[in-house]
Amino acid sequence: MKIAPNTPNCNICLEAPNSIFRHLSKEERDELMFEKSCTFQRRSNIIYHEGNRINGFYCVSSGVIKLYKTGIDGKEQIIRFAQKNDIFGYRSVLSGEMACTTAKVITDATLCYISSNHLFKLVKTNPNFSIELMQLACRELGEANKFILDIAQKSVRERLAEVLLLLRETFDLEPDGTLKITLTREELSNIVGTATESVIRLLSEFKQDNLIDINGRKIRIINIKGLQKTGNVYDGH
Q1: Domain-wise residue ranges, the chain
Q2: What per-residue string of b and e applies to 102-121 under the rule 16 or more CB within 10 Å gives b?
Q3: Among 82, 149, 179, 219, which is most exposed with the fewest C-beta within 10 angstroms?
Q4: Whole-angstrom Cα distance, residue 80 to residue 216?
Q5: What CATH number labels 154-231?
Q6: Degrees to nearest 5, angle at CA 203 with 201 and 207
Q7: Tell me: the pLDDT tens digits for 60-81?
Q8: What is the fold, at CATH topology level, of the domain defined by 2-151?
């Protein structure tokens, strides 16, 4: 970890359509720019561990962070990914609880850290920001509920197909259809919630069915509609 050589300009991030901060006033933006601290994080760095006390939250300026929980057997369950303009760690700050996930860097990242005091100040003084934050928390809760339902009702094959579609939606595709994120087979299994061997076998089956192509860790989506049918996932869910 090191201090980011070029501190990200908040105005660039804050004006993004999906930014939680887009309703801040000029004065609030200026204060945020002054108060925040930014660091450059290498791949595999741990930002914080599950069960740690955290006194602020993070905004991703660049890179990708994975948020996961660890089971009794030490196996990871990836909850979600955070990328440019996303925030993470805020729910533990708002609830006053220990961190409910571990945050790990999976591609080199620049992160901005904002203190809990500053978060509560914005919540108390900016109603639009508060509403955006509540809506974000509700969306994440809805995604968690959907995952629980999928674990209970869908087969591993269906869940893997759905995960590939989710990765496509989250990270987009290269012009040739390759996912813009590369994950290990273990990381994929940690999203699906199954054994790594099962994911390896199913990826091979998906390739044989001409749903995807595989080149090392790179996965190219060939047949989106086929994956939707396999995963029982359709546009608009």
Answers
A1: 2-151, 154-231
A2: bbbbbeebbbbbbebebbee
A3: 149
A4: 23
A5: 1.10.10.10
A6: 120
A7: 999 999 999 998 788 899 999 9
A8: Jelly Rolls (2.60.120)
